[in-house]
Amino acid sequence: MFLSFDTLGLPVPQGSKRVVRGHLIDANAPKLRPWRADLKAAAKEAMADEPPNVGPVRVHATFYFPRPRNHYGTGRNLGKVKETAPIWVAVRPDLDKLERALLDALTGVVWRDDAQVVALNTAKVYTDAMPRVRVVVSEATPWG
Question: Total structural domains in the chain?
Fold first, then answer.
């Protein structure tokens, strides 16, 4: 099994939980729900009516975030990324919360249970293009 897809839009972390009228909900549910729905829709399209995987899988995901204005030059360098601008997003949202939102959204679509994810390689990077997440899922084999 090999699956690759992008989901456009600003990646949303799975936030803290809170209890509302006896129900446990995500604190950022208004933003998280549509993001997870977009992830699920992209995964369903990439799965092309295949059932969820039942074996162990490896997941590679890169979360792309827009660069802040201070990463760009001014004057004649307007629109050019400064040489000193970082590649890595070393600020919020936390990577583990982005991973949780992704893995939960793909449960029941790409795999039956996110416990099947035995290897996870993720990163947060800046982009000059559209914010998104690129997801690659493959079958976990004994040597790769």
Answer: 1
Question: Do 57 and 118 contact (CB within 8 A), yes or no?
Answer: yes
Query: Does residue 18 form part of some domain?
Result: yes
What is the greatest pairwise CA distance in the chain? 58
**CA–CA dist 5, 12 (Å, integer):** 17
Residue 29 in tokens: 């549910």
Separation of alpha carbons 137 and 2, rounded Å? 6
Q: pLDDT by residue for the chain (144 residues), tens digit each?
A: 799 999 999 999 997 777 777 776 776 778 899 999 999 999 999 999 999 999 999 999 999 999 999 999 999 998 899 999 999 999 999 999 999 999 999 999 999 999 999 999 999 999 999 999 999 999 998 875
Which residues constitute the domain of residue 48? 2-139
